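Task: sequence in, structure out. Protein: PEP-CTERM sorting domain-containing protein.
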Amino acid sequence: MFKHGILASVAGSIVLSLLTTVAESAQASTLVFSGSGATTTTAFTDFQTAIGGGSRIGWDGVRLDGTDANPETQVIDPGKTVVIPVNRFLGAGALFSDPYAVSGDGFASVNPGTAGEFPAFSPQNTFVMFDFNNGQFEDRFIEQSFVLPGTTTAAGTRGFGAIFLDVEDAASSSIEYFGTTTKGDKVSLGKYFVPVGASGEAQFLGVLFDQPIVTEVQLTVGTNALFSFDGTTIQSFGGEDLANGVDLVNTDDFLFATPTAATLISVPEPTPLSGLSLAILGMVGFVTRKLAKR
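Result:
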């Protein structure tokens, strides 16, 4: 029995080692930067230094009065809130999956229930998603892919970070990083949660990789959209209600290493490894059965 256990253990270790080698080949080493409240600025600055400056989107260049540089920017509330097109920040290397909103009053103009809740990290504009379905507030995601600055050519970045405003629920807000395999498939590189803080405080979360492997990020921003807008009608979600699991969140500055040609993830063919693993396990089973008959 003792020999059986040793043999099974050794074989299991071999299989686990092989599987671990393959898993690690699809990953890159990471360094996480995070801060909340008084430590937010330090975390932001440290990350900016680590990426060598990079591209910073502070939203303050977006005009809110109908004279924005991109003629497709749509005014929701003149001088206060607009919707920007997906290509508004191509110059920085960012391409969004949907139009998102920029506001100069913390979105109080479209949701009075949040007035004063989101002091800007870098005055004064902030940035958030909204729900396109009138009266619904389920869309809580901001998705951004990376392109070579000034083009629509897909690219990768070594790191991405963002300022979040008023995160008070540890599970409400996060950033998930994605890469692209050599076969063109999208693969998650990890999901990281934003640290919490006191009401009205800013938080920062950024992750640095050792190569430009990140081709897309998805930010989960709070538990609900602040408002819905179907192109003509605005409907406010209302105020935050932490006691009932409602954590409303906003974002400010985005910061990322200047996009370059992406490093694609090489994923080994599973068949040879699977065959080898099964062969080893089969051999263990055969020998174990033989020993058991003695």
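Residues 1-26 have pLDDT under 50 and may be disordered.
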